[in-house]
Amino acid sequence: MNLKASLSNRRFVRVRALALTALLALAWQSPAHASGDFSCSAAWKLSHKQYSGCDNMALLGPGNDTRVNLVLLLFDARSRTAPPPHASNVPPDRPTPAALFEWPALRDVMFPPAALADDSAYADGEGSRCLSNANGIAAFEAAVKDARGLPENERTDLVAARRALQPTCSAASGGAAIIAGLPGRMRSEPGRAFARYLQGALAFYDGDYDAAAAHFAALNGAGQPWLRETARYMLGRVEVNRAQVDAFDEFGSRKDTPIDARVIARAEAGLLTYLHDYPNGAYAASARGLLRRVYWLGGNEAKLAATYVSLFAQGPAGLDDSALADEIDTKLLPTIKPADTTDPILLAVLDLAAMRSGESDTGNACCGTPITLARLQAQRPAFAANPALFDYLLAAHAWFVENKPAEVLRLIPDAARQKKFSYLQFSRQVLRGMALDALRDRNARGFWLDLLPGATLPYQHAAIELALALHDERTAALGRVFEPGSPVSDPVVREILLANVAGAPLLRQQARNMAAPLHEREVALFTLLFKEVTRGAPRDFVADLAMVPAAASREAGSIDVLGAEHPWLGVFTHGAASEGYACPSLRETATQLAGDPRGIKARLCLAEFVRLNGFDEYALDSQPPKDELGGTPSLLPGTPFSRLEIYKAIIADPTAAPADKAYALYRAVNCYGPSGNNSCGGVEVEPAQRKAWFLRLKKDYATTTWSKQQRYFW
Q1: Residue 297 host element (H or E)
Q2: Which of 122, 377, 623, 711 is the most exposed place for a label (fewest CB within 10 A)?
Q3: How far apart are CA 518 and CA 43, in angstroms?
Q4: Residue 108: pLDDT band by 50, 70, 90 thresholds?
């Protein structure tokens, strides 16, 4: 995901949290089982039954990307310490990980990028011959340099020929003429063997697999150890590439047409032979990766799953667990069924995905009918060595599928006070905390606080902060979040609550709180001023204007209160107030409303301020859903502002002056122009009513500027 230069990832999440703008299209290729290529908005809550891509958490759950669940389980299985963010890959201004994250963020934090060999794609199960051959050149030259009995002139010719070999895979490889003449110039046995290897390499890169196989097979008894090993490896690689001929479409996706089983068998045999003879050879990691590709190409889920399970135990050579998760998610999870494996890690990933609800944030069906308890119970023998994981799956089913919080408490005992939690231990206790909150247990908040000291792994602490914030919001104790020393320090969480729930006293407190971050103070003041002036507290608005800094920009800026680096506080003191319809400054308009809340001109001028400064463009008054952070009703009195409702009221007011009524009609009609969609908020009206407004404007106020300007209705 790309971030604006001046904003951190957290700022961008703020934008999504309030649905102020659409998320940029996901920038990575989305594996079939984990995700789709769509935009999403973060749902700031603990319980995620649907997959979106934005709502991954440090607890195992249905809403997580399958890769996230797999990596968390592998992290526990390997009992290792998570590395810190890698300085060259993670922006230096990235704050502490948030409670909700996307898969690339987890990958960046837990798996710093390493220097990769140019043929590393073989190790993670890819097999195209169309890769950089820089490592092949280096290995060949080293072997030639070390070869005994090789004359210097032949050594020079061989190195030059190898450097001339520049495979393109779309046309004949460079260096063909030089390589073709090599055998005639080689007088020594080692020289002829190296020349034959280059002939095989040329044929391989040109896609002549029969010739390549013949050349490499002829080197089985070569006197040079490097040639024997490399040729043995290349025999398997030749068959892998033969199997891939016409196996993919123009977009790189597997075609449905089956691959010749004989080719698959030869590829498997060739790679297994190499691994038998060279279990720790130079190409062992590559051969194992290619072997997994062979099983995938051949549709052998059982062997593919068994190979992955062996990597769970020993660790994947040549790739980290994030790359392994990507590969499994692409090649195994789309087709494997629980009956195809008895591995508890794979089963847990499959079971959690099978608990997803049948609805999707993207509007597409995602999951079908969730897994039944009986099907889950039937897997118990597979978890004999990991009963804690199985009990967690049962509790997750009780929570996410059956909505039985009391059953969660029965299955998961209290173990909140620990010095450190694994991801499974953390998941178990967070699920218990969610059940306590659902049952309104009086000790729920204390339970969350008990979890904090042990929440030391990436994303764990932020999840507990979110849990505490949700608890305090739901129990009418919002002030606790903003007390000195509050454990809730996550700026996203705090600002969502300020923008959506906080009342005027708390907003004023935080706007003046110099110990709070600058952005939080700006969010508090912006929210306070906007809601006061639009929700019927103009007198308070005029008084609180004094808090707008003198240095607040007078230039038009962003009023995106959560997403902007600095909300445009200067809009309240120097924002546009009039365009065609004469209006004073916002301060004067608010002063007039304080004296007469029903003043027609003052209400129209307030609507003008909202229109001219782009407030209609942002959902500043739309709260998140009730089950999400910020979803409880605002503690600041009044209802969300609507220009359309102001226009309706003035149209119906018999005391309104003709010019004011004409302008209200003009603006009401244009609330739907030109798209036909309401841009002014309020209760929708049918096209017939819009037509009536238009005709009334044209008939009763024909001489006004507004009637003359209006040519259509929508």
Answers
A1: helix 284-297
A2: 711
A3: 25
A4: confident
